[in-house]
Amino acid sequence: MGDPRVVVVGGGYAGATVATALDAVADVTLVEPKDSFVHATGALRAAVDVSWEDRVFFPYDHLLARGRVLHEYAQAVSSTQVRLSAGRVIDADYLVLATGTAYPFPAKFIESDVLVAKARLARLREALREARSALIVGAGPVGLELAGEISSAFPGIELVIVDQADDALTTGDYLPELRGAIRSQLEARGVTFALGSPLGYLPPVDVGVLAPFTVHTRAGRRIDADLWFRCYGNQPVTDYLVGDLAGVRLPDGRIAVGPTLNVRGYPSVFAIGDITDVPESKRASAAIAHAHVAAENIRALIAGGEPVAVHEAAAELVVLPLGPEGGASQLLGPDGIRQVLGASETSAIKGADLFSTAMAELFGSAPRAAE
Q1: Residue 65 lies in a domain
Q2: 60-73 pLDDT per residue, tens
Q3: Are the beta carbons of 71 and 33 closer than 8 angstroms?
């Protein structure tokens, strides 16, 4: 008999990590339609700085030493079989679901071809060079980080951030000091906030496209801008589940998992990353942590043992850069109590590199240094 067959559906942070971790002990197939991994943590920097593209897109060529990466869509997935977009069916002894969430450009990309994604980024940067004003809808971490990147690279653009909540960063368990640090830095750059009322209607143009428009909040505030960005609305990508797995989707599209991250009721099927119902914010570090737990448990099952590794949701942490030199972070201190760090510490942790060197090492690539 050959090695057990592990099929990983989705090649983002979670999928790429678990596939790599199991490559030595199993016959691993990673199903991922994109021809290059997208380092989403750095995507917003690439939206304003072309020199960052080589630190955001990494080919899958060197990810696996023994296994393979199939650049196709998983169209229909049951607990033991994956039907690909080309019609081929792959059998799985162990299945890992890691398809993540869909999110608007430029934080994530729908394009499968990296050249197409880079062309769209180039059009966005040209639009930003010509724009005098921009609207960001959503005052969560993505919207604020995008505002930080734009205000750093294009300080002449008038930025307005709209959110129906009464403050920024209300979607997670964030300390008031973090909200205050982020807002004060952005306001010092001239960014304005229109909070407490949603837009009455969305702009009539696509995101990131230069086309002046006027919108109003439901409270009646008029906003004129040259382009806009939608920074809300994570949608779990799980509509490919069929057969015995068709019923594991929750009403919002997420998948219920047990402490060992197996899909409830299916000991040989695991779900990791943003698609799970684990009560924590959807971030790369959590997805990678999920991958290590799932890999350890699949290794145990392959060896004839029982899965014992468990994932416990961490305290709400965030490293939120506002461009290369700004931002604030909420982390655990040495005493286990959450603390807020400022711009210089945030830049040292994440802002300057955006973890791109670590991702390059995972994919066997050497990114060009950012200019």
Answers
A1: yes
A2: 999 999 999 999 99
A3: yes
